[in-house]
Amino acid sequence: MIRFIDEHRDRFGVELICRVLRPAVQGFLTSRGYRAAVGRAPSARQLKDELLVPEVARLHAENYGVYGRRKMHALMRRQGWQVGRDQTERLMRLAGVRGVRKSKRVSTTRPDKTTVLPSDLVNRRFTAPAPRRLWVCDVTYVATWSGFAYVAFVTDVYSRRIVGWNVAATLRSEILPLQALDMAAWNVGGRLDGLIHHADHGSNYTAMVYTERIVELGAVPSTGTVGDSFDNAMAEAVNNLYKTELIRQRGPWRTVEQVELATLEWVWWWNNSRLHGELDMRTPAEVEEAYYADQESGQPAPAGQASR
């Protein structure tokens, strides 16, 4: 009420605003009540809100504008602010920000029914005792003004870190997913001995050139059931969040190159800054650092809920 009167007092005057609106709006201030309110010293809550609301807006914007109450509360606590979850929600409303909602999944799987497929070594159990034990892979697409951009991700199940990715104008196995796999292998030293590589039955993942590369690197290929998204649920979740947090937030997209640059920035944020609820509000980088630190000390380090 006070803000409304402040915005219109120069045009209509305080007395006229209060006289007209008080009968129509239950509990509207009288002119005397307004003057008493504006003359009163600001409360401790008001002063704190003036400090925290811009901080909430800044942190929300720095994290792609996607965090809801739960993650904003965790982020504020990490920044040293002693705030509650309900208080965080109220501050977000004052700042005019809110979290994003996930969209429905769109399938990009094109199975090749003539190919002999690897067995399913995961059976929907997306858990791993350590990094570099189980990777999940999938492809999604982004519509641009110059045609489709296809995006491949390789994700480590233990830490949820995106270890490899690629953006291309084609789905061809030797260009799109193979380059993402090679990036992932390079990031961990080149060899993947003992690692399970899990994907769906898409033809770009079951092509001979791709499966031979998996075996050459020392990994074991695994595939889920055709047409069942639950058999590659974690990779599907990464694609969904990529679309929700980046593609739909920042579009429309003009070129494949623009998508590639934005994906580079998003992957860095995902791995190093984004708080993951499945990792107890930690980042993938923090989870892996904790694992290797505990290995040196001889104490086991749990990852998030998905790896327990």
UniProtKB/TrEMBL annotation:
Which Pfam family, giving just one, matches this sequence?
rve
Tell me which residues make up the Integrase catalytic domain. 127-292
Annotated signal sequence is none
What GO molecular functions are on record for this protein?
nucleic acid binding
Provide the GO biological process annotations.
DNA integration
- Superkingdom of the organism of origin: Bacteria
Q: Which NCBIfam families does the entry link to? A: transpos_IS3 (NF033516)
**Annotated function:** Involved in the transposition of the insertion sequence.
Q: Can you say what this protein is called?
A: IS3 family transposase
From what organism does this protein derive?
Answer: Microbacterium paludicola
